[in-house]
What does this fold into?
Amino acid sequence: MATTGLAGDLAALDRFGKDEDGGFNRLAWSVELRRALEWLAETMAEAGLRTELDPAGNLIGRWEAGSGAPLIIGSHLDTVESGGRFDGALGVLAGVDVVRRLRAADFVPARPIWIVAFMDEEGERFGTAMVGSQAIAGELTELPAELEDSDGVTLGAAMAGWGRSPDRLGEARLAQPPWGYLELHIEAGPVLEEGGSDVGAVTVVAGIAAFEVTIEGRASHAGSTPFGARRDALLAASRLVVELRERAVRGNYLATVGRLAVEPGGISVIAARATLTVDFRADAAPRLDAAAADLGDALAGIGELTGTEYRCRPIYRLEPLPMDAELIAAIEAAAAEVGVRCLRMASGAAHDAMVIGRQAPAGMIFVPSVDGISHSPAERTRAEQVEIGAQVLAATVRRLCA
Ligand SMILES: [Zn+2]
It folds into this structure.
């Protein structure tokens, strides 16, 4: 017998963009993502939803019940390159499944329920991110058509393949903010699994502050330049990586150097320049401020020690976003009703909830990730935990729309 329901939908989605390593490639505005959304539109229609692909490439399935502004249940089907099976997809498919469950139980919601698959949450292809949710929220009206992916395809050309245009994203803006927003997502970290919890009720989505740091030293000969005469940019960068880790542990935030480029890059040449990125995460704005101050402090000290100079440029900053207290309480009550263990926790990763949550009360439910792995073909959530997540989501929706 074919698998039905949420497990069946997850299996059906496996057809779109899977590579030989078991990773998924449904990048923003790709053919694979379009085919997946075409399938999803049919699946939504079978569940009784009225579908629309909006000007920002968001697929919206509407259950026009009750009155007033809708409860939106959303996430994304786009992936990073060779991404996992559950990141994003779980939240969208679980939303459709909730509609089926509620209809089967003859539940009549007091307000409309919309299921949304947001466009380009991941941002990997064009260096954008949260495009669909920002467009719906009215925070993004256009993007430069000339942005290029790694194959030289422009955003304008990629969107034209969908009959969409980067200067018309503003048309996706909703006439009124939603009544509320719910997102079921994999934790993408190890906390739930290690603590033996079934679901997480997210209290806050951590903020991000990212910087690009350039350290200027001086190129010279590896054989004839004594240590005391060196101005080694890579030595300075290395000290920075280590010191940021130590400061982050003390300051209770996360710091990651994910990219480091060294020039000129010769075996026997002392590095003249090191360019690196720093990504800070914290669940409160003052801690992000402290992290940024730590970076300046560390650079100044290291510069003095190594005879290097530095420049530091902010790349972006997203403020931490607390989830809504009533929605957190509804999720906890729903978990109790289902009979599973629920843990209050912060989300270190950013999600569409961070954008929609600025417009409307938002809540997020996490399910455990096996070994805490995500953005990888090895990303996995056990079938029974997928089912528990869907049950908690359904019970939360029943509470909010009774
Ligand atoms: Zn995601």
About this structure: The first strand starts at residue 50 and ends at 53. Residues 207-318 form a domain with the Alpha-Beta Plaits fold (CATH 3.30.70.360).
